[in-house]
Input
Amino acid sequence: MAQFDVFAVGNALVDLDYEVTDEFLAAQGVEKGVMTLLEKDVQQKLVNGLNNEYTIKKRAGGGSAANSMVTTAQFGGKAFYCCKVGNDELGKFYLADLNKAGVEHRLSQQNTPGDTGQCVVMVSDDAERTMCTFLGITTDFSTNELHEDLLKDSTYLYIEGHLVYSPEAVKAILRAKQVARENGVKIALTFSDPAVVKYAREHLEQVIGEDGVDLLFCNQDEVRDFSQTNDAEAGIAMLLKHTKRLVMTCGSQGAKIIDDSQRIDISPYKVKAVDTTGAGDTFAGAFLYGITNGMDLKQAGQLASRSAAECVAIFGPRLETDVQLKILQEFTTVNS
Output
C-alpha cells in the first residue's frame, strides 16, 4: 500500500478574501471571473483600494492544489503537498495552516528568504470569484523542491495548472511526471482556471506532453477554451487524446466523467451560491479521495459534487473538517 493517496505539486498562496461589486472590479481594470497575475506593488495598490472600501472577510491558506489536498485529508485520505514558501510571516502562517488541515509537507525544511505568494480573492454579488495573485517565491518552485522519495510511494501525482506559468516549475512538473511513470504512479492534472488555458497554453501543452495524463479535471469554460472553437464537444474530443479520463465540472448542472468507454453524469446538489471560490478544487480533492479509497467513479463523483456544492454555499475556498466528515458519514450511510 502506498504511503500517500495523492502527492500534489502546486502554488503556496495566502488568500485575502473580500466581497466586492462589479463596479469596483471595473474601476480597478480587473478582468472578472479569472485569475490575473500581478507584481507585488500592483497587488498592494489593489489591497489598499480594497481596504479603503471594504473589510477583509478572511485570511486563509490557499492555492488550487492545496485546497484539493486539504479536502482529501479532511475525508481521511493521505495527502502530501509539495510547494515553496518564504521565511516570512505568511510562510509561517501557511505551514501552520497545512498542519492544522492534516496535510503532510516538508516546509519545515525550507528556510528560504523571500515573499510567500498571496492571492486577493474578490467575490461579487453573483458569487463569482475574481483573483489577483502575486506569486512571490512560488515562481521559483523547481526540481529542488520535489521530494521524489515520497512521490514514488504515492498512488497519484496531482499537478496544479497554475504552476505552468513558471518555466522552472514546468521543468519540475516534467521531472515529476517522469518519476511517476517510472514508478507506476498515476498522473492527474487540473487546469485550475480558464486563464491558464488562455494565457499559458504553450506551457500547458508542454506539461501534458505526448504521454498525456491519466486523469484531467477541468470545467466547461476550460474545455471550450482548449478547443479554441467555443464548442464543448470539440474540446472533449481533443482532450480525450491527452487523458485516459476526463472529469468536467458543469457548475449548477453537476459534472461529467468521460472516457473512451463511458459517460457518467453526476447530479448537482442544489444550494444557494455565496462564493464559487474553491469549488473546483474541493471537487477534485473529494474525487481523488474517493477513487483512492474504494469508491467507484460514480460514487466518487457524487461525493465530490456534494462537497463542492457545500463549498459554494459558504464564503471561502474550504469547508471545515467537521462538515466534510458529516458529508462522508451521510454519503456512506446512503451507499452502504
Notes: The mean pLDDT is 95. The chain has 13 helices and 13 strands.
